[in-house]
Amino acid sequence: MSTARMENPVILGLSNQNGQMRGSVKPVGGPGGGGGGSQTTQPAQVKPSSTVNNGNSQPAPTANTIIKPGDDWKKNLKLPPKDLRMRTSDVTATKGNEFEDYCLKRELLMGIFEMGWEKPSPIQEESIPIALSGRDILARAKNGTGKSGAYLIPLLERIDLKKDSIQALVIVPTRELALQVSQICIQVSKHMGGVKVMATTGGTNLRDDILRLDETVHVVIATPGRILDLIKKGVAKVNQVQMIVLDEADKLLSQDFVQMMEELLSYLHKQRQILLYSATFPLSVQKFMNAHLQKPYEINLMEELTLKGVTQYYAYVTERQKVHCLNTLFSRLQINQSIIFCNSSQRVELLAKKISQLGYSCFYIHAKMRQEHRNRVFHDFRNGLCRNLVCTDLFTRGIDIQAVNVVINFDFPKLGETYLHRIGRSGRFGHLGLAINLITYDDRFNLKGIEEQLGTEIKPIPSSIDKSLYVAEYHSESGEEVKL
């Protein structure tokens, strides 16, 4: 993240009701700056081209879509800057396969390499060839280890552009995750000569979705309620869907969504392929698997639950000391971007206001905000327009913002599963990160219980935290594996 960008106050001309507070951004790296400094990679840039319907966009045709025999196609790729940060064995412990080993279309390989994906991660190595064979998959892998690529690559490889029907569904639990996955899908498929990708979620205009589905759509990425509504109205015709992916399957098969998922499957062809991906698999997933999957290939890359690169600390405080403690953390830590979790929407807004009053840049996001405001906050935070984001557990599922190196649990969660997903917002794709928990007297038994449940250690916070544990510039610039 460039220093210049972060030195200016973030004033976007929007009311504080939309989640973007107007506190100034303090100078990078200076005292009280919430940390900072440059990072080897920019936050993921979301560039909406012709954005329609809440994130449905198609990139303009590129000159290198047409490949002539004998061309050195790799020479013409527009590769992103190489990420030189250290990575842990969560993503480096591979069998040594290459993406080219899977006999993928060259146009798809071009999109993969231009995303900066150099080699398959362990979950991608295990998953891609099995998914290409058409077999059902039940895959369990840690947050931030490449699950989206593990299902999007085989999904796109199997799309038949001669058919103008919906051929694949990706179901996700939150609107922000739907937008993120659709953007990745669009970017990876940009050289494939016309793969049509659509994101559809609640909180947006249904009429826009209906108009969009009147045209050709090959891949739909959706939240459960909205896609079910479109199917029931006869607008989304899913009789030719050959693959359905449940991303964050444990959430989708929880009590909140499981009835919708059962109903959704009843509209699909009996021979469809089902791919389930998640970091945690409760009993509800086992029950669904027994009922709907046919001899699924099971992948479990979860010898331990927490990411190797995330260092976890707790600070013992009273409720009244929390804001003061947060202010101290901002002044002492070198934060590139941070996500701060609260347990309710009301506390999110109150804390965001406090952080702004302290003079730090701060956005907030929660489920009670209008959808267009949520989209704007998510997009701008992802593009590095603000250093700190306060949110509820809305933001724990699959959201991938590479620049986040610190997660703070302002309110400690009650469930180990929630804790696992929260701290997984830092240390993405094998990089290093920091998780700090503010623990009150009432949280003490919960802290011990979550440590035991996850088989992890949350240590007391030291007076000084080694920057090499979470700051990119203090890592070796060889991109070598961290033996953690």
UniProtKB/TrEMBL annotation:
<dbReference type="Pfam" id="PF00271">
    <property type="entry name" value="Helicase_C"/>
</dbReference>
<feature type="compositionally biased region" description="Basic and acidic residues">
    <location>
        <begin position="69"/>
        <end position="88"/>
    </location>
</feature>
<dbReference type="GO" id="GO:0000932">
    <property type="term" value="C:P-body"/>
</dbReference>
<dbReference type="GO" id="GO:0003724">
    <property type="term" value="F:RNA helicase activity"/>
</dbReference>
<feature type="compositionally biased region" description="Polar residues">
    <location>
        <begin position="39"/>
        <end position="65"/>
    </location>
</feature>
<dbReference type="Pfam" id="PF00270">
    <property type="entry name" value="DEAD"/>
</dbReference>
<feature type="short sequence motif" description="Q motif">
    <location>
        <begin position="97"/>
        <end position="125"/>
    </location>
</feature>
<keyword id="KW-0347">Helicase</keyword>
<keyword id="KW-0694">RNA-binding</keyword>
<dbReference type="GO" id="GO:0016787">
    <property type="term" value="F:hydrolase activity"/>
</dbReference>
<dbReference type="InterPro" id="IPR001650">
    <property type="entry name" value="Helicase_C-like"/>
</dbReference>
<dbReference type="GO" id="GO:0003723">
    <property type="term" value="F:RNA binding"/>
</dbReference>
<feature type="domain" description="Helicase C-terminal">
    <location>
        <begin position="309"/>
        <end position="469"/>
    </location>
</feature>
<keyword id="KW-0547">Nucleotide-binding</keyword>
<feature type="region of interest" description="Disordered">
    <location>
        <begin position="1"/>
        <end position="90"/>
    </location>
</feature>
<dbReference type="InterPro" id="IPR011545">
    <property type="entry name" value="DEAD/DEAH_box_helicase_dom"/>
</dbReference>
<feature type="domain" description="DEAD-box RNA helicase Q">
    <location>
        <begin position="97"/>
        <end position="125"/>
    </location>
</feature>
<dbReference type="InterPro" id="IPR014001">
    <property type="entry name" value="Helicase_ATP-bd"/>
</dbReference>
<keyword id="KW-0378">Hydrolase</keyword>
<feature type="domain" description="Helicase ATP-binding">
    <location>
        <begin position="128"/>
        <end position="299"/>
    </location>
</feature>
<feature type="compositionally biased region" description="Gly residues">
    <location>
        <begin position="29"/>
        <end position="38"/>
    </location>
</feature>
<comment type="similarity">
    <text>Belongs to the DEAD box helicase family. DDX6/DHH1 subfamily.</text>
</comment>
<dbReference type="InterPro" id="IPR000629">
    <property type="entry name" value="RNA-helicase_DEAD-box_CS"/>
</dbReference>
<protein>
    <recommendedName>
        <fullName>RNA helicase</fullName>
        <ecNumber>3.6.4.13</ecNumber>
    </recommendedName>
</protein>
<dbReference type="GO" id="GO:0005524">
    <property type="term" value="F:ATP binding"/>
</dbReference>
<keyword id="KW-0963">Cytoplasm</keyword>
<keyword id="KW-0067">ATP-binding</keyword>
<dbReference type="InterPro" id="IPR027417">
    <property type="entry name" value="P-loop_NTPase"/>
</dbReference>
<dbReference type="InterPro" id="IPR014014">
    <property type="entry name" value="RNA_helicase_DEAD_Q_motif"/>
</dbReference>
